[in-house]
Amino acid sequence: MMYPGTDLRKHREQLGLSQAKLAELTGISQHLLSAFELGKSELPHKMRQRLAEAFQNPDSVSTVVKRRKRYQDHAYFEVPKDLSRLARYTKTPANSEYVELIKSFDVASAAPKYSAISLFSGCGGMSLGFRWAGFSINAFAEKDDNIRAIYRANFPNTPALGHDILEVSDDAIQALCPKVGTLDAIIGGPPCQGFSLSGKRDITDPRNGLWMHYLRFVRILRPKIALIENVRLLTSMKNEDGRLVKDDLKSAFEHLGYNVNIFETNAKQYGVPQHRERVFFIGVRKDISIKPTFPQPTHGEKPGLFDTTATYRTFGDACSDLPFLESGDTSSDHLHVAVSHPNHVVNWLWDVPEGRSAHDNEDLSMRPPSGYNTTYKRQVWAEPASTVQTTFGMISGCRNVHPIATRSLTIREAARIQSFPDSFKFIGTQGTIRTALGNAVPPLLAYAVANHLATKVLDFVEIPGL
Predict the structure, then answer these.
(1) Is 192 a catalytic residue?
(2) How is residue 160 annotated by DSSP?
(3) Torsion angles phi and psi, residue 245, rounded to 5
(4) Residue 407 DSSP code
(5) How far lies 27's CA from each of 5, 80, 166, 195, 328, in Å?
(6) At residue 154, what are phi and psi to the nearest 5 degrees?
(7) Residues contacting 163, CB < 8 A, separation 6+
(8) 126-160 burial string, b = 16+ CB within 10 Å, else e?
(9) Residues 191, 210 contacting (CB under 8 angstroms)
(10) What CATH superfamily classification does 5-62 receive?
(11) Is the pLDDT of residue 199 over 60?
């Protein structure tokens, strides 16, 4: 006999079974039994079968459960659909507008009017934003074979500059001049692992000096604009001599004949539904006589009466049209698939509210044994998402828990939060795709910068003799 939730409590009490005892007997967590009895959620068919068997033959079920309990830390159980959570998972008013916006950019990109090459290209987030703004990407460089494959899938006509720019000689760069012509921009984001807060900031990390190889291309190709994007903490990073890296970089730009300004920003200020702090170094060739500026923010906290900015986009604005998934669930979209998490981890997080961590649980037995309170932490549905990192698939990572479901983020959710349209091709292993997404420049942010530079610099260029 299969018991509906409303009858389960009556039958349990008639047999003198406490809820805790029934949970121990069946291996179904007490909070799931409680929600089922109160009519707040349904139990999967397999769990309801186990309940029926427990009432018919408790000794047999108990033996199976005890055997399973030995492997609790490695066990993965089907997570039920909580009706109260499904009720909260509603499409936000701004969702359709956002999804259509990034789709429309991709469908109706401006006809190429400007030229650029991309260095340290990653999967192509910055290139995509520049393409939306009317730039033709004439060449790219990305060292990682797997991530380069993603770039090629989305920019099939863009030639690669060898395998590694460290191996590209000055003569080879010079040979590019006839191919790229008068170059409008060189764009790039040298790897930031040595600068990021997500890892130890190692001033001796050889990747910290890759910007010098970027400047070789600037020195030889002489673009009108040179742009470097990186993590905001680069502004406080010091080199081995104790000097600020940003000062060295600015001096190097100026030595090459560029007026340069440094701009710290947050992607959420430009319509990206994500808190993502970044820094841009933008240089404009001195003979152009235009100082580099940065676009005014288009989005803010709560716009005032005469404020033209829109309200920040939120996690829900990015993802609320996607199918609701719990741990281990799949969908027809191969990129919208939930990681299966161990049952005990799901239990830690089940009742954790938005914006809080499992480390905040009052019941000490329901807290993770180690880690910071930014780990095992839920995001907030009605706020910009937290920074997408390469580890967003790990539920134990920093703010990686879905606001409503009890799981980590899917690849599709991370791509939406990063402002990639659904048409963007992500190929390769899930690990490769997560790395590519976590390191990518949000295309919507790149578009805002590219469009500003095009209209405020390139459209006003008057260079004698050119």
Answers:
(1) yes
(2) B
(3) -60, -40
(4) S
(5) 17, 14, 57, 46, 19
(6) -105, -15
(7) 143
(8) bbbbbbbbbbbbbbbbbbbebbbbbbbebbeebee
(9) yes
(10) lambda repressor-like DNA-binding domains (1.10.260.40)
(11) no
Q: Which superfamily does 95-310+442-460 belong to?
A: Vaccinia Virus protein VP39 (3.40.50.150)
User: What's this model's pTM, rounded to 2 decimal places?
Assistant: 0.82
Give residue 240's Cα distance to chain centre. 31
- Give the sheet arrangement for strand 277-285, strand by strand: 135-141, 114-119, 185-188, 225-231, 277-285, 258-266
Render pLDDT for 98-138 as a digit per residue (tens, 0 to 9).
Answer: 999 999 987 766 678 999 999 999 999 999 999 999 999 99
Which spans in 133-244 are helix H? 145-154, 170-174, 177-180, 210-221
Residue in 90, 88, 101, 87 with CA at minimum distance from that of residue 321: 90
- Contact status, residue 160 vs residue 121, Cβ threshold 8 Å: no
pLDDT confidence of residue 418: 99
For the chain, the domains span 5-62, 95-310+442-460
Q: Whose CA is closest to 253, among 298, 223, 295, 208?
A: 223
SS3 at position 256: coil
Q: Which tokens is 142 given?
A: 């990305």
| Fold matches, 5-62 and 95-310+442-460 | no
Q: How many residues does the chain have?
A: 466
Element (DSSP H or E) covering residue 61: helix 58-69
**Which residues lie below 8 Å from residue 244, measured CB to CB, with a gap of 6+?**
235, 236, 237, 238
- Of 123, 192, 319, 398, catalytic: 192
